[in-house]
Each structure stands twice: as C-alpha cells, then as structure tokens.
Amino acid sequence: MKAVTWQGTRKASVETVPDPTIQRPNDAIIEVTSTAICGSDIHLFEVLGPFMTPGDIVGHEPMGRVVEAGPDSNLRPDDRVVVPFQIACGDCFFCAKGLQTQCETTQVRDQGSGAPLFGYSQLYGSVPGAQAQYLRVPHADYGPIKVSDELPDHRYLFLSDVLPTAWQAVAYAHRSPGDSVAVLGLGPIGQFAARIAQHQGLTVYAIDPVPERREMAARQGILVHDNTDASLTAIREATQGRGPDAVIDAVGMEAHGDAQSAFAKFAQRTVQYLPDKLGQSVMGKAGMDRLAALYTGIDLVRRGGTLSLSGVYGGQASPLPMLSLFDKQIQITMGQANVKRWVDDLLPLVEDPRDPLGVDDFVTHRLPLDRAPEAYEMFQKKADGCIKVVLEPQPVR
C-alpha cells in the first residue's frame, strides 16, 4: 500500500509499505477513504524529530470502511467508521471516567505517556499512522465510531480529532451561556472551538494574524481580530475592562511573537541535529515551548477566569509566570481530547441538515495521497489560504 512517511526534519514522502494485518482478535483493518493533516502533525517535522524514525507512517485523523474484522472487534466488513486518534480499551478505570487518553490498558509506560496515538512518534507508541491506504485499528471493539452511509466523508471525518478536541476545549473553559471567551488561533481547532462556543451561547472573540483564517471564522459569525495590542485592548474594552471569562489557547508549542518564543524556536531547531538519544534526553528534561500564545492568554483572561489549553505543549522546562497566574487566580485546564467522551454530543450536530457548526465550510484543500509532501509544505507555510487539508488515499474508481 501507499503511505505518508516521516523521513526527517521537514521531509515527508509517500512510500510503498507492507499492508497491515490482523494481529489480535479485536483488531480491524480499514480501507481509508479520507484522512486529514493535523496541526500537531507539523510538530513531528519541526519539534519531535528525536522521537521519530525514518519510514514511520504518520497521520491520526482517518475514516473509511472495514475490509477485515477480527472475531472480537464488534465490526463487520463494509462498516463505515471514523477512527479516533487515540487507542483506548473502554473498560479500565480511566476510560470509565471519560479519560480515554489516559487508558490504563494501553498506556505507553516506557515513555511515561498516556494512551498511544496513531502515527505519533515513540512518545505515543510508534503505532503506524492513518495517512495511508489501509490502517490496522487495535481495540476495534471500542474505538471506531460507526456512521451512516448517507453523508459525505467530510461531515464525519473530523469526529476523529478536530471536533472532539474543540468541544473539549470549550467544555474545559467551564462557561455558561452569556459568558465570554477569547480563542487564540484560528487553525482547525480554533475554528471549531469558536463555532462550538458560539453554538453554546457564548460571546466569542477570536484572534489570528492570518487574514484567510479570520475570514473563514467571520463567515460563521465570529468576532475576529488580528494579532495586535490594539485587538487585545478592544477585547478588554468589550468586556468592561476585565478581559473575557475564559481564553482558549488553540496555538500551542510553536507560537510566534516574543523573545522567549524566538529563543525556544532556536532551541527546538537545534535539538533536531543532536543524535536521537541525546535529543530525546534534552527534550525530555530541558525542552522548551514557544509560549507567546500562552502568555497572551494569561494576560488577557479576566481575574478568576479559566485558561483552556487545546494547543499541544511538550516542553519540560518551559517558564511560566507563576506570580501572574497566582495573583489573577487563573484556573488552567488542558489535555489531549478524550474523543469517545464527546461523540454523543457531536454526532447529532454533524448529521443535522442545517450544519450548525459549519462543517461544510471547513476543508480548504482536497488532494490525493501522492501529493501529501506538497500538502504538508502548504499547510506549514499557511500558503494558498490553507486551513484544512484532506487527503484521499484511494485511487479514483
């Protein structure tokens, strides 16, 4: 089969690799019909290289049809399914609490990490990823989300990651209708976090420096601002000088904009050129994130408010302004999205003919799998108005 592989810093290639096979009774093999590039995939090519091996198959946002089902998988050939990005058992202590990302059955204990993720480095189990023609799905008796045949792929695809991540970001903001929230970053997660917050009756202010991203959000009725001090002042003035009740940071570890972020960017790039074991040690003990977005959120949120982090962070030595956090009495919530926890809330919305979350106005580029390297470069550079890329692995029939 064809698959997108990691070949080094900022280098993806499409290679021919062995087809996956059933290894356990609760496995399934799916033919991938759509698979998306996630913003966190870019981290593999920019920051997390020491935890990658040339030839690793990447990607974690797939859907498709079952072509082979293990006897304990609860699936049948031709079932149409969306596959969550994490692999969880559904039965353990944490899964029962809706914390599938912490699954005790599947935790990557040798790395001190939670549940494994498809296509996401040694840190999360080195599981072959989903930007491929076929995918082995472990724990298929629990993970896959069965969907109907009536709607096109893009209506369901984002249940794999983007929609649950955005929903959790809003849920973790702990707000009620009439409250206000600022969303930092209008990439894929920020777009849907803003729409979900608005759908739930919040007043939403969204900040992004890229005009095309602001234009997409504005089409959904979101109040958009560019990334300037004047914008922050305007948001404070609109919230009686206090700042919004919550801030959602949908940017994460590769933010731009201040001296600390510039230094952290230099450190992140430098570690790419260290031998893998040394690079892993440095990242695990002294890794730093670019924190411009996080610092903005801390500054902007009102006293006693909530900072909800959905953008990925990975630094163990990132400096935090503890005085400001303590003095402002800010609550911080964060974590990988627990996909299955939120599916029952989201599925009726993606199937609603009125499309209340604007899923039909989200995908900016659809490309065949063979053009994945071009798509990665375009997404990373935010070129050609690129906000969300969907790859189509199967040849046109």
Task: Describe this structure in a few short sentences.
By secondary structure, the protein is α/β, with parallel strands linked by helices. The chain has helices spanning 39-46, 93-96, 153-157, 162-171, 188-199, 211-219, 229-238, 259-271, 276-286, 292-300, 322-328, 339-351, 372-381, and strands at 2-8, 11-16, 28-36, 62-69, 80-82, 134-137, 145-146, 180-184, 203-207, 223-225, 246-249, 306-309, 331-334, 365-368, 389-392.
Determine the CATH superfamily of the largest domain. Medium-chain alcohol dehydrogenases, catalytic domain
Question: What's the CATH C level of the largest domain?
Answer: Alpha Beta
Distance between the termini: 16 Å
Please name the CATH architecture of the largest domain. Alpha-Beta Complex
Domain Alcohol dehydrogenase-like C-terminal: 188-255
InterPro entries: ADH-like_C, ADH-like_N, ADH_Zn_CS, GroES-like_sf, NAD(P)-bd_dom_sf
Family: Belongs to the zinc-containing alcohol dehydrogenase family.
Organism: Nesterenkonia sphaerica
Main attributes?
397 residues, Quinone Oxidoreductase, Chain A, domain 1, Rossmann fold, six-stranded parallel β-sheet, 30% helix, globular
Structure explained in plain terms:
This protein has 397 residues and is of the alpha/beta class. It has two domains: 2-146 and 363-392, Medium-chain alcohol dehydrogenases, catalytic domain (Quinone Oxidoreductase, Chain A, domain 1), CATH 3.90.180; 164-334, NAD(P)-binding Rossmann-like Domain (Rossmann fold, 3-Layer(aba) Sandwich), CATH 3.40.50.720. 30% of the residues lie in helices and 18% in strands. Strands 3, 4, 5, 6, 7, 14 and 15 form a seven-stranded mixed beta sheet that branches. Strands 10-9-8-11-12-13 form a six-stranded parallel beta sheet, sandwiched between helices. A two-stranded antiparallel ribbon has the order 1-2. Helix 4 crosses helix 5 (188-199) and helix 4 packs across helix 12. It starts with a strand and ends in a 5-residue tail after the last strand. Residues 25-143 form the Alcohol dehydrogenase-like N-terminal domain. Keywords: Metal-binding, Oxidoreductase, Zinc. Residues 188-255 form the Alcohol dehydrogenase-like C-terminal domain. This is Zinc-binding dehydrogenase.
